[in-house]
Specification:
single chain, mainly alpha
Length: 136
């Protein structure tokens, strides 16, 4: 199912979702050749791998959602717990990466959005504590 979306990537970007996915696939294949050269920062490679893993899981969940929606009697909402679990896994991964960034002094008081992150993590900490039955 190809839908026309706004061109977030600029005026030269293909307009349909199918075209954009095909273009992204081609770009990923070109990037694969560059990654194989081994001339890159390991942290950047780790971030790239994490992003690719995230999009792979999201694409799988969407494909599963569409498949279940097309089947008679299929419950597309059964995919929601999988997507929630993926968000928890990814948030854990990002939190661990941020801990390393803070330890290495790559993130500090001057980092844009650090106060918003602090507030969001505090709220998340409180809600998870409540979920787990712990006083926060």
């Amino acid at each position: 199912m190809a839908t026309t979306e706004p061109n977030a990537a600029g005026p030269d970007a293909p307009g349909t979702l199918t075209d954009r996915l095909e273009a992204a696939t081609s770009e990923l294949q070109r990037l694969e050749d560059l990654v194989k050269s081994g001339e890159l920062d390991q942290r950047v490679l780790t971030e790239f791998r994490n992003a690719v893993d995230h999009i792979r899981t999201t694409a799988w969940a969407v494909q599963k959602w569409v498949g279940l929606a097309e089947q008679s009697g299929g419950d597309p909402f059964s995919v929601l717990p999988i997507m929630s679990a993926e968000r928890v896994r990814r948030a854990t991964q990002i939190a661990n990466d941020l801990c390393l960034d803070i330890q290495c002094a790559d993130v500090g008081l001057e980092t844009k959005g650090i106060v918003d992150l602090y507030n969001a993590v505090g709220d998340l900490h409180h809600r998870i504590g409540t979920l787990l039955g712990r006083a926060t």
